[in-house]
Amino acid sequence: MVSKTGVVLIPYITTQAQMELFYVAYQSINTQGDFEFYFVLPQDSVSRAWNVGIDMAINDGCEYVLVSNGDVELHDGCMEALTNYMRKKKPIMVSPWCTRYEGRDLDDFVVSRVTTTDSYSCFMVDSRLFERVGRFDENFKPAYLEDCDMQHRIELAGEEHWCIKDGQFDHYRSATIELHRDRGWAKDALSHKLQFRYFKKKWGGGPRDDNLWKEPFNGG
Fold it and tell me: For position 10, what pLDDT does the model report?
């Protein structure tokens, strides 16, 4: 039986420029194979939108689910590289190599809280993610640091998130924030203050700090 791969896209669209970026992202995926697409309306947090989309795909029988920003463009062969890696290596998550990475040797690497940059702009999850690690924390409102939170929990669960060179993509800009319809939403998200405060309360330190707690909200 051939496994089914789903694709989650959240259309943060209010202008023609945003529509064009979103269409580029959609086409760069759609032209690479027969995938099930799940379009999720923007929620009060990016985490909630990701959770809703992943739930939809898993409930529809998808074994793997790609979650992508609307401001990216996947290179040819990227989807095949990601799904092949998932089948062979069986990590809980895999991301394609972002062409914005500079000063890094072009090689596969294990993603960590320190190296999450761009790795959550486009990522593929195994359908076991919520069971093994849990859902994205929807308290990171409206966005940012939900990726570091998930990455910390992936490591605590003994799972791995890989970034692979055989699949690559371009990330044009942070459209989720810069192009969002609500200016106050963007201001809060870019400041990181609310998200950083919550992360520190939950894990006992900042997203790049060592020796974070192993249990949320508990220094024991």
Answer: 95
